[in-house]
Design brief:
Number of strands: 2
Number of domains: 1
Shape: globular
Number of helices: 2
Order of helices and strands: EEHH
Bound molecules: zinc ion
Radius of gyration: 15 Å
Strand content: 5-15%
Length: 82
Amino acid sequence: MCGHQVMVSQKAHILTEGPKKGANLLILCPSCHTIFDTHIKPKENQALLDAGVENMPKSWEKSIYQQAAEASKLARTKSSST
Ligand SMILES: [Zn+2]
């Protein structure tokens, strides 16, 4: 996305719950991958919801940081209750 040619490229999944190949993949530099997952997906999700689009992908609702924080919190809750 940024136009920088880097030695390390990463496969970004447009839909986390979608296929791990083909049109669901973007090859991005690490910076663009992070921006895509943390900013673009949640912003596009909200813009499309605001435009009346329904049934948006679950993985677009929150940034990966929010998802990771919630998963950690859930894991701590589970381990403290056992
Ligand atoms: Zn980039």
